[in-house]
Amino acid sequence: MFGFKPGEEGTGSEDIYFIKVLGVYKRMSEALYGKVHYPPRGFSDLHDKALWMCGDASWKWHTKEMNDPYITPTKPLYLSRPDIFKVAAGAWVHKQRFITNGDPRGVGVCRPDVFASTRVKEDFITFCDFFSDRVSKAESPVDGKNSVVVGETTLDHFQDSGSRIMFHELVHWFGTTFDEKGDLIRLPDQQAVSADGDLVWVYTDKVGRPKLTTTSKQQPGISYAKWVVYTYARCSRLARSHPGSEFAQNSGPAMATNTAETYAYFAMMAYLDNFDWSGDEIAKNINGD
């Protein structure tokens, strides 16, 4: 799932990819079990933990001339928050978090087909309205562990489950670190690759349907957007190395350990460890029968 193989005696503690993966899970475990906050004052240095939100309707647009709602006595936002409003003419505000997207028509957190969004810079995680539609009907690994059918059930069966989506967002949070200068190093969603490692893009065809293609098959005059890694197949392809290929830089352990979905799928595999999910993501007996 992460693209690196352990040695004969296991994965050594000096392996950079193993260290990265272990660090993400360790930070998550320590925080969720209540030992520590990560980071101690959030990524903004203003909050000790992430704000979890349902939808983005709570955000209110403020111009820089409006009074700061979080200080007493109050003063205009351009005076109280000069770091934010030095350039921005306005911002979306909620619980001492500020989004300066420059668009008073909408905060832009929840968009069509978006289940959830993690904004580490502003210290919040949002589960969008779209989340409830398909997720309410999806079976989670916890609910489905005892109903897995060997040879039939796939890991993607749990892909729309709330636990998979929440875990994915938590990886964005706990996978983010600081560099030596204090700048954020985010753990993002990587661009998907094809079976041979070419980058995958999405475009809209003449009748408005989304279509996928690769860099080598792009046509002039068409607008393309990145297609990011979701589902088992995309995780698996991202983990593969293609040494000597023109696409070698697009995949392998450096990329697979730096995308949120691989951590979520590995967690599902670890929880459902009474089955073998390797190779084709279809449940198999551990003993190979």
From TrEMBL:
This is Uncharacterized protein. One of its GO terms (molecular function) is metallopeptidase activity. InterPro entries: MetalloPept_cat_dom_sf.
